[in-house]
Automatic annotation (TrEMBL), chain A:
Keywords: Signal. Residues 1-17 form the signal peptide. PANTHER family: BLR1237 PROTEIN, TRICARBOXYLATE-BINDING PROTEIN. The keyword Signal applies. Coiled coil: none annotated. The lineage of its organism: Bacteria, Bacillati, Actinomycetota, Actinomycetes, Kitasatosporales. This is Tricarboxylate transporter. InterPro entries: BUG, Bug_dom1. The keyword Cytoplasm does not apply. It comes from the Bacteria. It comes from Streptomyces abyssalis. Belongs to the UPF0065 (bug) family.
From TrEMBL, chain B:
Residues 18-437 form the DUF112 domain. Residues 492-514 are annotated as: Disordered. This is DUF112 domain-containing protein. Residues 498-508 have a biased composition (Acidic residues). Pfam families: TctA (PF01970). The keyword Transmembrane applies.
């Protein structure tokens, strides 16, 4: 082999230039097929679960926990392969899924409220549309709002009379905290919010340090972390977000003693909430809480595949082993199959522009938060 | 409590659990040894198994890996000068310098001893503090954490002694790069230029690998020699033991600093190890300090002891508050949840046996891991005597694949190459890279806790909190002290002379010097970047622009200072010696060639995906640059590609995919 360093450099240069030109064309990871899938197609033997969140996080744990049970109860016992594609508030992975996931059931998408909110708030980067995608399995969630005894608030009346703004710690106004901010907006008690906490758990830590005096936690975190505080008189639970039953918000069966936001409003002001604030709150609450975690297939995935998952849910509900072990991961909320609710779910994602605008205006008015900026 | 402790111990020694602990230790060691694959790599490797095992077994597996990942990641840092993980990059200072002198074995034995003791102290600390940790964690609010991050950032000054301007320049630039992505206290995205990929911020592993690893590779490939000179391989073991015994105070201090950094959620392991290093260096007396950065055993002991105790300390917020400090802790949390165990105050009463299983596993794994490393490191230490180009081929493939793991965005490969170029420029210009990394790591936490402090407390309220005052004292007193000293030194010029000789981290004055015009051009480029960033940051909302504004103003001022100094040097100095110029020309060409090879590899990866790219790149590189024999090349290539494929197939390691990657290889 002869050695001519200059020609070598030149050649590498050519390869490099070619490569960088290709690189400029876009991201090679978005390559996929656009072919249609036959109407009678079955669930493939290997299904990739695209998880747009970090390994070990709540959504990841949910998906990985479900995987072996899904295998057991889905026709053809497919193997589920979790694949994490975190980043960009879950937009990166979800975009990739709709671009290249196909309709043959070889990939399914795992979602959480954060994913939904990006779509509902119409972030310009979002390429997915949950009002068209097909819901396979949904899992609800719930949350409890509580306050510090130092505020002196013990009842709805106390909250009405409370003049000073309550202090709240959040992650970001456009993420999970949105529902809480909207609930307080419905109750006409905007909070003095500080954003920048790493997670809901860190906000709870700040609450325990006395840095903030109102907080919300998911029901399962409430039961393990906040209830012990409440027993010692260090926290006063006020209300829960409730759950959706036949299209109506009712008390959360996990915390049956706590009133819903609607009931609390009635106690405060003598009437049920209504108007744009409440409409906007509900528009985000339903997808963000009732259908918080979910497994989705792309638009145009044939019924034969989608229905296979729907029937899985029925079998899961009868699995005693699953019932015994799933408590912590599912947070005490049932799994829904997409079957009864597909249209209802898809409708929930066709957000009324007025509700979205109200939410964005509220964020700007009360919290000086504007979406955007590069 | 004692009952639970002993029953957990008995439980752990049951054969099935022990096997999983060993498996965990084994995979942790392997993942740690591969440069760049630290905690995240271990998680990727173990995840598929965790959800299929019994609780105790799964815990033994995870903890086994977590406890040793930071023992074996030392090896690459010390021997090759390529960070084994982000938090092991601190060992590039003293550990690698020691190895360069041919004392790799001594450096490694110091590291493993300290690592083991640090792990054991961490486990002990965990046992003692778990019942009382709650109030401790709660006593540290946002103001205290803010002061701690400030203290960390002030380390940049400690680490740039000898050339304060260049150190601060690097620190400011690190702070700026750390601010890329979502702002912590506002809904703005900063410096992303519309790219979704940057909205998450730059990944620490990729940054550490680029700035240190790639920069190291291009120079060493160029020089075609081995890392170490001399042949002190066998002699170091006993010296290493003696070093650790002699500096036992530093072992304990390092462990305590690490423990704290782990217990307080929000700082992270990398900041913890650097702070341990910084405190060791800052508290050593002046005369002895000069050996720091040039292969001082204390510069290995403190961070290495902290390295493992950080992970133990991290378990406290994980178990008690459900706040994981890193990827492995998050995995642990997920596994616990899958077994119906939820973190929280009740874990101490309800699941105490689980807590003790975790602690005992940690202690046992620390011992096993260090022992295994001792056995392995004698052959491994020989690596530093291998001709570097031979190692470089595989390292290039591994480094880029490792950097890809966290975000899994192929654009990151280009960013790593750019950072590699930056790292190399900093290296030849004598701009220390340690302050850069500290700035990068602490940028977001500092900003986050500043805004939390400012929003949650009145100024007069938080500034008088006792811990804040203590930390303020730690921050201010040494500065005053050194000022007083300086004033005195002016009167006594002999001392001032010594101050001048204090070189920053042995990074300056290495290899051929670049032309003097560089000392003008480089600060000028930094100045332009800072000014541009300042202008861009004016467009953000008030809570998002404060910190970038401050950082860029300070950065621009420092860059301007460096520029003035550079111009002065340029004017004063005569023309460079011809030999110097010739040496630089050789170096420059060699480095350009190395960069061309790296760029070629990235281009190939874009086209073929990393697996096929390695298959093409390795034979060419090994033949043309490393000048290996064909038989060796075939074996080398097949082993590397096979190992990559195996990791991808069995351990969930993600491989970059190209435009033309065949479907079967996806």
């Amino acid at each position: 082999m002869s050695r001519k360093p200059m020609s070598r450099i030149r050649m590498t240069g050519v390869v490099m230039a070619a490569g960088l030109t290709l690189a400029a064309c876009g991201n090679p990871q978005g390559v996929g097929d656009d072919g249609k899938t036959d109407a009678g197609a079955e669930v493939p033997s290997r299904v990739e679960m695209v998880i747009p969140y970090d390994e070990g996080g709540g959504t990841d744990t949910w998906a990985r926990f479900l995987a072996p049970y899904l295998k057991k109860h889905t026709a053809g016992t497919p193997t589920f392969l979790p694949e994490n594609k975190p980043g960009g508030e879950s937009i990166t992975g979800s975009n990739e899924f709709v671009r290249s996931g196909g309709t043959d059931g070889k990939e399914v998408l795992v979602t959480s409220a954060t994913t939904y909110y990006q779509a509902l708030l119409k972030r310009p980067e979002v390429e997915f549309d949950f009002s068209k995608m097909r819901p396979l399995i949904m899992n609800g969630s719930g949350g409890v709002i509580y306050t510090s005894p130092k505020t002196g608030i013990k009842s709805a009346d106390d909250l009405v009379k409370h003049k000073k703004k309550l202090t709240y710690g959040g992650i970001s106004a456009t993420g999970l905290d949105l529902t809480m901010l909207q609930a307080m907006d419905v109750l006409k008690k905007p909070v003095d919010a500080t954003f920048g906490f790493e997670g809901r758990e860190t906000a709870l830590l700040a609450y325990q340090r006395g840095e903030v005096n109102i907080d919300y936690q998911t029901t399962s975190a409430y039961k393990t972390q906040v209830e012990p505080l409440a027993e010692k008189g260090k926290a006063v639970p006020l209300m829960s977000f409730g759950v959706l039953k036949d299209g109506k918000v009712v008390r959360d069966p996990n915390v049956p003693d706590l009133p819903t936001v609607e009931e609390f409003h009635k106690k405060m002001y003598g009437k049920k909430p209504s108007g744009p604030a409440y409409e906007s709150y509900k528009a985000f609450l339903v997808p963000g809480t009732t259908y918080q975690k979910g497994l989705w297939a792309n638009e145009d995935t044939p019924d034969s595949i989608v229905k296979a998952y729907w029937s899985t849910v029925g079998k899961l509900k009868k699995d005693k082993n699953f019932a015994k072990k799933s408590d912590s991961v599912l947070g005490g909320y049932p799994l829904y199959s997409g079957e009864n609710a597909e249209q209802e779910i898809q409708k929930a994602f066709e957000i009324d522009p007025a509700a979205r605008k109200y939410a964005l205006d509220m964020l700007e008015r009360e919290y000086d938060e504007k979406l955007g900026g590069t | 409590m004692l009952d639970a402790a002993f029953s957990a111990l008995g439980n752990l020694f049951a054969l099935s659990n022990l096997i999983f602990l060993l498996l965990g230790v084994g995979s942790g060691l392997v993942v740690g040894m591969i440069p760049g694959l630290g905690g995240t790599g271990a998680v990727a490797m173990l995840l598929p198994f965790v959800f299929a095992l019994e609780p105790t077994q799964a815990l033994a597996l995870i903890i086994g890996a977590v406890a040793v990942v930071h023992t074996s990641d030392t090896i690459a840092s010390v021997l090759l000068g390529i960070p084994g993980s982000a938090s092991a990059s601190v060992l590039m200072l003293d550990g690698h310098q020691m190895a360069k002198k041919g004392q790799g074995a001594r450096a490694l034995s110091i590291a493993f001893m300290s690592s083991m003791i640090g792990g054991l102290l961490g486990a002990l600390g965990l046992t003692l503090s778990i019942p009382v940790a709650r109030p401790l964690v709660l006593s540290f609010g946002a103001p205290e954490l803010f002061m701690l991050t400030l203290l960390g950032v002030s380390l940049t000054a400690v680490l740039s002694r000898g050339n304060m301007v260049k150190g601060l320049l690097a620190g400011a630039f690190g702070l700026l790069l750390g601010g890329i992505g979502a702002a912590p206290a506002a809904a703005d995205y900063r410096f992303t230029f519309g790219s979704l990929f940057l909205s998450e911020g730059l990944d620490l592993v990729a940054v550490a690998l680029g700035i240190f690893g790639i920069a190291e590779i291009v120079t060493l490939v160029g020089s075609r020699s081995s890392v170490a000179t001399g042949s002190g391989l066998g002699s170091g073991w006993r010296t290493g033991f003696r070093d650790v015994l002699q500096h036992w105070r530093h072992v304990i201090r390092g462990a305590l600093v690490g423990m704290w950094a782990g217990v307080l959620p929000g700082l992270g392991a990398t900041a913890g190890t650097w702070m341990a290093y910084g405190q060791a260096r800052a508290t050593t007396r002046k005369e002895k300090k000069k050996t720091f950065g040039k292969g001082d055993p204390r510069g290995i002991i403190a961070p290495e002891s902290a390295n493992n105790s950080v992970e133990a300390g991290d378990l406290i917020p994980t178990l008690l508050f459900g706040i994981p400090g890193g990827a492995p802790a998050a995995l642990l949390l997920g596994a616990l949840l899958a077994f119906n165990i939820e973190p929280g105050p009740r874990i101490i009463t309800k699941d105490l046996d689980i807590v003790y299983t975790i602690i005992w596993s940690f202690a046992l794994a620390s011992i096993l891991g260090a022992a295994a490393c001792f056995l392995l490191s004698r052959p491994l230490a020989k690596l530093s005597f291998v001709r570097f180009p031979v190692l470089a081929g595989g390292l290039v493939v591994v480094l880029f694949t490792a950097g890809f793991q966290d975000s899994e965005q192929i654009a990151l490969l280009q960013v790593m190459l750019l950072l590699g170029a930056l790292g190399w420029v900093m290296k030849v210009c004598g701009i220390p890279r340690a302050p850069f990394l500290i700035g990068f790591v602490l940028s977001l936490p500092m900003e986050r806790y500043y805004f939390l402090t400012a929003n949650l407390y009145e100024f007069g309220e938080w500034t008088v909190r006792p811990w804040v005052l203590v930390l303020l004292g730690v921050l201010v007193v040494p500065t005053l002290f050194s000022l007083v000293k300086k004033v005195r030194a002016r009167r006594d010029p002999g001392d001032a002379q010594q101050d001048q000789e204090d070189q920053p981290d042995g990074e300056a004055g290495e290899g051929p010097r670049p032309p003097r015009i560089w000392s003008v051009v480089v600060p000028a480029v930094f100045l332009v970047v800072f000014v541009a960033a300042f202008v861009i940051s004016r467009g953000y909302s008030s809570q998002a622009r404060l910190v970038p504004g401050l950082v860029t103003v300070v950065g621009a001022a420092v860059a301007a200072g460096a520029l003035v100094a550079g111009v002065r040097v340029l004017r004063r100095a005569g023309p460079q010696e011809p030999e110097q110029r010739a040496a630089w020309a050789v170096e420059w060409r060699a480095v350009l060639r190395s960069f061309a090879w790296l760029a070629g590899f990235i281009a190939l990866t874009y086209v073929l995906g990393v697996l096929l790219a390695a298959l093409v790149f390795l034979p060419l590189f090994l033949r043309l640059v490393a000048e290996m024999r064909w038989r060796g090349i075939v074996v080398y290539t097949l082993c590397t590609v096979g190992a990559l494929a195996a990791l991808a197939a069995f351990a969930d390691i993600a491989l970059p995919i190209g435009y033309l990657t065949p479907v079967g290889l996806l």
